[in-house]
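User: New here, any thoughts?
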Amino acid sequence: MVNKRFFWIAGLILATLLMVAGNSRPYRWWPINDMSEQPNIKPFHENSLREPAPGSIAVDQWDAVPQRALFMTGEADMVNPFEATPESVATGQKLFNIYCISCHGKEMRNDPGYQSPVQAKGMPGVNIEITRIRSDGYLFATLTHGSAIMKRYSYHLSPEERWHVINYIHHLQQMGQ
């Protein structure tokens, strides 16, 4: 009788603890706030990509790149500060193979023999011919800010690395002539 009563009481205590633990957050009484309740800027909030206030001084490097539309209207212009040396093209090819090849393909061509995973799902890749009519500044702004479905690469590539990728794109253009 004592054993049955002990197991029933122990079972009730265990069930009660499991229900309480499942319905409350641990350490609610802890004096330090939980990290999920802190007031920080979440990366997908609408205000997380705002430009700094006028007159503010950047602590880190601030890369002020105009939007792509300004390059189409001719209001903005940027010149590639890096010569297209073999080292620059090789660096650009390495970065292109890491970040760009999965969507744009090996040589940025709409080749039926080779389709990137994005092209296989019906989204055409950017043809290398389209990049011929775009300025270096437009390509740089596209890498910096992204485009319709392309994400921005300013978080992954430094400005120098973006210019090397542009040199590699020009190398692909020359190889296609």
